[in-house]
Every structure is written in structure tokens, then in C-alpha cells.
Amino acid sequence: MKLIEALNILREEQPQDTQAFRLSLVCGFTPLHLATFLNAQLRLLLSGRRVELLSAGLYGDFLGNLEKAGESEADAIVMEWGDLDSRLGIRGLGSWAPKNLDDVIRNVRAQASKVRQAIEANSANKCVAVSLPTLPLPPVSFAPGWQASAFDLELRACISSLALELARVANVRIINPERLDRLSPLSERLDIKSELVSGFPYKLPHASTVAELLSRLVVPATPKKGLITDLDDTLWDGILGEVGTQGISWDLDHHSHMHGAYQRLLHAFAEAGVLIGVASKNDSAEVAKALERQDLILPASALFPVEAHWHPKSESVSRIIKAWNVGADSVVFIDDSPMELAEVKAVHPEVECILFPKDDPREIDDLFRGLRDLFGKSALSEEDAIRRESLRRAPAETLTDANHNGGGEEFLRQADAELTLSFSKDPVDPRALELINKTNQFNLNGKRHTESSWQHLLCEPDTILLVAAYRDKYGPLGKIAVLAGRKTKAKIQIDTWVMSCRAFSRRVEHRCIEELFDRFDVKEIEFDFQSTPKNGPVREFLAAMLGETPTGRCFLSRDQFSRHAGRTFHRVLEASHG
Amino acid sequence: MDDTRDRLARCFAAVFPSLPVDSIARAGVSNTEGWDSVASVTLIATIEEEFGIELDIQDLAELISFEKILDYLQQNPRKAGH
Description:
The complex is a heterodimer.
Chain A: H1 3-11, E1 21-27, H2 32-45, E2 51-54, H3 62-67, E3 74-78, H4 81-84, H5 101-122, E4 127-131, H6 150-167, E5 172-174, H7 177-183, H8 192-198, H9 204-218, E6 226-229, H10 240-243, H11 257-271, E7 275-281, H12 284-290, E8 303-309, H13 313-324, E9 331-335, H14 338-347, E10 352-355, H15 361-375, H16 382-393, H17 409-414, E11 418-422, H18 430-438, E12 442-443, H19 451-459, E13 463-472, E14 475-487, E15 491-499, H20 508-520, E16 524-527, H21 536-546, E17 554-557, H22 558-564, E18 571-574
Parallel strand pairs in A: 1-2, 1-3, 3-4, 4-5, 6-7, 6-9, 7-8, 9-10, 11-18, 15-16
Antiparallel strand pairs in A: 11-13, 12-15, 13-14, 14-15, 16-17
Helix pairs in contact in A: 1-2, 2-9, 5-6, 11-15, 13-14
Chain B: H1 2-15, H2 37-51, H3 66-75
Helix pairs in contact in B: 1-2, 1-3
């Protein structure tokens, strides 16, 4: 992004009727253009929300500024060598005499320890994004520049230790230095003239890059959920129908190693909870035989469903999306044929269609990095590990609407369903926030939360929270529903209600409402319903309970609920904590 | 030369969003709201980026109005990226 583009973004009027996203930018130098770029990037990522950037502080007092970071939803912390010891900055004129080098190292260690403590304290109730020193070390050491001196290495080890300790702290995210190196070469970062004239040490492109990466850490993209892959010349090298099961390959001997590397990546994805499906124009019996090969890096058990036939791939993609019960915009389709990609894209414009560049290992390597970005997440949950198996085990009945009385009743009765409810607000459950921020279909109003806004909400004394986990004889689904709101004298106000699409058709929503009525002994529940392009399932549920389609905030009485709710068969347990 | 004027006007419009378009040509430190030291640094950085140039530190003190900056860019065409 160019500075003039960032300034023009900041000229645009901000929405006034929304709660502002407040970010504290903490650094020891004059933030100037970094603040401009960061503000602009956040406005792009949070379109529809007002952004307020707080960047007050004293020049040269990085630690003090860090400790005084204001009330905000998140902090962006940008540290440079001079913040750890002024002798490592251009403006400081402290001695570089060899006898002083040990003192520099001691000072950096001590300062890094204080920085770690301050960042840990700040991260207790908000997300903290950190940029560790990005500028080249000045030539302090007595060694020539081409030699890595013990002094330089000691300083870098100190930063590495700090980074490792911080990366293990919940809510702290650190810019990946390798990604920064790719986007902003080391020699193109320091602007000495600007540092001397205005106290701002970064060249504009570097400031833009740091701001972009920080904003991605603070406002992470929603990870994609499923990857649909072609087989021939993609998952393996060769056309199965021509060369047969033993003719396909994915190894160095057959010069097809990158297909094996692709399988390895997909296997890692599958183990991390990404759904992997297959859409292949092939003979299904041949494919089944090929998938029995024991030397596959990506075992057949990781693939579900496998669509192998001669019908258009868009039809296969439709069926896979239905089986996964996810939105098309959370799916990536990979094929070596531009024509197949175009055919799928025409029918499913929201699916991200990506070419497998089978003849270019460098492009395949770039593809791997791009896929990591699309599917990457900061932490894995128990639900990630069981997602595929729960889909595979789900009987066909659960994919139809069993909520209505009739056909699904018997299925629900024999499912041996168990619902574990948690009403505890402490400790904060990251899975609850993850569900809120990625659920589209059964979502009361589409509102999202940041870590900070979610923690603040839970800290309010009248906030109530219900997190439901589900299992039945087909296996566990993990935590699949979250309700949050406030309890007043006579009623409950529900502001947040999401339920994973994997839990549809099990009447979990009926049971959750029943439990709220019972536990809090209220006569009415108020729902902050807002229609979104995707939340038809929650609208239909409320319409069935209310007897009319809701158009906004609505009220459900206990009598109405008793008349319209479906019969439930869950065994209900309350989660134990502590 | 009109191209230089237009590009410079775009820089001014970005840095001084409340400045009316028809006042940009007359803008100067003394008559432009918000033209402080931070705005000066931002304006110079925007101009350097827009024209792909690096202004001399000793010239900065003289660049205190739209007209003076335009003159500077026109008299130093190599600096102005022509």
C-alpha cells in the first residue's frame, strides 16, 4: 500500500453507529506513517466498524509506553533494537567500545525480561500483536560485517528466547520474521534520513508491510474449512485410467515428488481438522483400488467424501459441500485443469478455485504457502481432531431435517444423545469464541467478537453463558453451541447464539432453550435476531417457535416454546470445572 | 507540467482532507488548517513516494506552500521523476 492510498482510506467517513475497534500502537519511536498504514489496514479489514488508533507515548520510552498502553481491544507492539539498548539505535551515541559490549548484552537481556512481563500483563484481557526488531543491527561489534560475531548472535539469541516465551502466551501473536523477510528485504527497511529528521526509522514500503502483518495478527482471517482435490496429475502424477493403479506415482524416482509433498501437506491439514474431499472424473472402482495403495502419504481414511465418476465436477463439489454442511465460501477446490476450475467456479462462485501447477515445483511450493495462509489458525482445538470422523459417522438421517415431527423422531430417540452444558464464564473458552466467529448458518445475528470484546462481555456480572457439547452413539461432536446474553429480573436477553452446522437436526437448539427457561426460571426470552444472507436456519427455528417469521428483535414466552418445541431425548450433564 | 500540478494536488488532498479542492493551489503553512510539523513530514513523504524522489534535507525548510513545492519540482525535473 502506498502512503497516499492509506491517507485516502483515512479520509473516508467512518461508521458512527458501531462500537469502535480501539487499538493501542506501542513503539519507542515516532509512529508517524506506521500509524497511518496500520489505521488504513484495519479499516479495510474491519469495514463496517469504526477504528480508533491510540498511539500516544514518549519518544524513546518504549517500555514506559508499553506499560501505559491504553484501554483498547488489542495492542500492536513494535520494538526495535534501540528500545532494548539506546546504543543499538542510530540516534543514541553511547560507546561502542569493545569493553562495553558485555554491558550492552546484559542491558538487552534485562530489558527483554521487562518487555516480556509487560506484554504478558497487557495480554491478560486482549490480543497483543508483536513485531520484534526488524532493522539491521548497527556495526557495534568489532568483527567485520561478513562474520557473525558472538555479540550479534548473543543479541539475536536473546530476541529468539523472548519470541519463544511470548509465542507460548495465550493472546500474544508474533510477526513471522521469515514472512517479513520475503515481503520486505532487510536492506530496504531502514530510512536513516527520516530517522534523523523526524524520528521515524522505516522506509515507507517497510512500514506498510509491518502494518499489514500486524493488522492480520490483530484481525485474523477466518480459516477455510474444507479442501476438495482432484486426483489425476494433482494428488498423484499420471492418469489413472491410462496407467493403472501401479502406474500413478508421487516420488523422486518417478520425478513426481511434489505430488507426494502435496499429499503430505493435505495429510497435515486433515490431522488439523481440515475437511479433505475428492472430486475426480474417473472410474469409481479404479479410484477405490488406487486409494487402497498402502504407500499413499495421504491415507484414504483422511478423504471424505470421495466423488469419482464422469459427471461434471461442479456436481461433485455440490454434493461434498452438502455432506460437509459448510458454506461454499469456506471451501477451496484444487485441480490441474483450468477448464475444470472454470466449470466449478461458474456454478460455485464463492468457492476458491486454485490451479495445481503440476509442471513447476517452485509454483507448487508457493501453492503450499498460500494454502497454509488460507487454512492456518493460531491454535487447534479438540473439535478439530474429531470433525472428520463425526461427519463420516453421521448417518444419512442427520443430513435431512429431522427437526420436524415425523420421520426424524425415531432416529432421535435411538441416537443415545448426550448434551454436556457449561454455564461457567471462567476460564474463557477459546472454542466458544471460535464458534461465534466462524458460524454463519445458525447464527442469531451474524455479530462477531474479538478476544478482547468477548472477554469484556464475560467479565460483566449479569452476563450469562451457555456452551453445549454433544455426543451420541455415532461419536462426539465436541462443543457445538454457544448462547450468551444477560439475565434481568423477568427475562433473559440473548445477544449471541451460534450452533455448528454439524449439530443440526438433533434438536440441540430446542434443548438449550428449554435449559435456559428451567435454570433461570424466567417466563420470556428476548432474542436479538437480525437477518443475514446466511442465517436461514436460526430464522426458521424462531419462526417455528413464534408462529411467524422474525424480522428483528423478538420475544419467546415459555408457553409459546412449550407449544411448539420438538420432543428431545438428550441425556443432559453439567460440565464440571476446576 | 500540468501532470506535476495534478499529482501534487492529489498529495495535498490526501494529507489535508479538509482543504477544499479549489484552495489547494493557494495552500501554505500560514493559511492551511492542520499544516503542522507532522503534516509537513507526511506531505514530504507522500510527495517523495508519488514522484519517486528524495528531497534534500536542506531544501525542506523552504517547501512551505503548494506553489513553492510545485516550483521546486518543476525546476528540478530530474528530482520530479521526469
